Amino acid sequence: MERFIYKDQKKLRLGYTTGTCAAAAAKAASMMLLGGVPVRQIELVTPKGIPFKLAVEEILMRKDSVSCAVRKDAGDDPDVTDGVCIHACVTLTEKGFETDGGEGVGRVTKAGLDQPIGNAAINSVPRRMITEAMQEAADEFGYEGGMKAVISVPDGAKIAQRTMNAELGIEGGISILGTSGIVEPMSEAALVDTIRAQISQHSAQGEKDLIITPGNYGQTFAAEELGLDLEHTVKCSNFIGDTIDMAYEFGLDSLLLIGHLGKLVKLGSGIMNTHSRYADGRMETLAACVLLAGGNAALAGRMLRCNTTDEAVDVLKEEDCLEAVMAQLMGRIRDVLRRRACEGLYIEAVVFSNKHGILGMTDGAERLMEIHKRGKQV
After folding, report:
1. Which residues does residue 104 pair with via DSSP β-bridges, in sequence order?
2. Which helix H or strand E contains 69, and what residues bound it?
């Protein structure tokens, strides 16, 4: 059953998660094990209430077990697991419903993730969906015993090399994921979930002071130019506000935000999601800082006509007012970050340009940089 959403004036097709595939395969295998008849199509209702009719592939019926697969369809989302077969092998047990991971499903090796260390990386919602799928089949056939489903992904170990699993502490394969059961194209929820998983993992290991960067530029600058230890680093993408909220939620002590001027200048206007889809305001913010620093309207106008922040920095250097303007910007960034962080979370920022190096720091940033150089806690 195809469903669509509209984003940025585009019609995009929804897909379904690896968790939905695993549950659907487990349901089909359970019905074949109890009914003895091949099932070529299975219907499953996702946690979000959306029904899907899914084709069942690679059926193998034995006397004491049945295995089959459902192929992942990510819709219009660029997902590395799109087209991959998620297998379930179901056997009968004396009582209860169990789920485990087999070939190509990763194992949790670090604390702080959805599952405890040693468990298969099958998250809580997919586990519940798999259990409910087996229970539904048992109810249909009046079966009162138990069942066990082993979920496997033959290509999972290879696919996992293209994910962040190893960094997060998941070894040997992919994760079976999904909270709603559906894949929404270009889903921001998936990115935010990844950030949450990273922070949770650091917190579970007792780390209270983290460096956050929007992406690779920030990490590279932190390591190569500032000499900081990247072991305690989280990529926050554009979700600076959400990351601060999660840091507060997990009881962290401090965050050191390191980012390119092109991203972090937006914080000066209170923009906490820095994706251009939501807001720009780069040149407007710099123009305001020019005026606050005592510059004239003509210079502010030049800011508004710049195409890039590096071009704007060139102009400010030419006018010999870069330091004063950046002091105004860093003051605004400091105030915005501290308002979002609330009490108890110490937060500082470093703003740089690949062309010009460090452009500004909030007043406590050097203290946090020293801590991360030494690998100590605040």
Report:
1. none
2. strand 65-71
**Enclosing domain of residue 165:** 4-183
CB proximity list for 176: less than 8 A, separation 6 or greater: 18, 19, 22, 86, 101, 105, 120, 121, 122, 123, 126, 151
CB contact at 8 A, 17 and 174 = no
Entry pTM: 0.69
Q: Do 148 and 93 touch, CB atoms closer than 8 A?
A: yes
**CA distances (Å), 45 to each of 24, 70, 168, 181, in order?**
9, 15, 30, 9
**Over its length of 378 residues, how does the chain's per-residue pLDDT go in tens digits?**
566 555 555 666 678 889 999 999 999 999 999 999 999 999 999 888 888 899 999 999 998 999 999 999 876 666 788 899 999 999 999 999 999 999 999 999 988 888 999 999 999 999 999 999 999 999 999 999 999 999 999 999 999 998 878 888 899 999 998 888 776 655 577 778 889 988 998 999 899 999 999 988 899 999 999 999 988 999 999 999 999 999 999 999 999 999 999 999 999 999 999 987 788 899 999 999 999 999 999 999 999 999 889 999 999 999 999 999 999 999 999 999 999 997 889 999 999 998 899 999 999 999 999 989 854 544
Q: Which of 183, 207, 231 is the last residue of a domain?
A: 183
As for how many domains the chain has, the answer is 2
144 shares its domain with 252:
no
Alpha carbons within 13 angstroms on the beta-carbon side of residue 196 total: 12
Q: 238 and 161, same structural domain? A: no
Report d(CA 86, CA 91) in Å as an integer.
17
Question: Looking at residue 123, which CATH number applies to its domain?
Answer: 3.30.2110.10
